[in-house]
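for the writeup, i need someone to sanity check this before i put it in the appendix. the sequnce is what the collaborator sent (i think, or maybe the updated version? ugh). structure was predicted straight from it, no edits. if anything looks off just tell me and ill rerun, i have time this weekend
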Amino acid sequence: MTVPALLLSLLLGFAGFAALALSLDRHHRAVFRAPVPGRRVGGLRAAGWSGLALSFAAAVAAAGWSFGPVQGIGSLTGSALAVVLLMAYRPTWIRTAALAALPLAALTLPLALLA
């Protein structure tokens, strides 16, 4: 797996886990100082699971079915660790970091496809 493909998988996983974390009331309160609105929960969960699925698909597309699932689980583990550390020490930064991860993933996509 190339570095751009790994970075793409990590960024998509980070955005997915951040969305899933923000769908929980406790983490939403830590970031926004308000309870999570009921209609926003479904959207955040859908975005989170979509990000995780795209992250896994990017890893499998880059490394194939022989090593792709291993690489996908590894990148999901790394991105989950990043979300946990950010939620523990700087919870207000999670929104900015997750929103920054999506354009970075879009910029990384052509590089991952070329390699």
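The chain has one domain: 3-107. Residues 18 and 83 are 6 Å apart (CA to CA).
thx in advance!!
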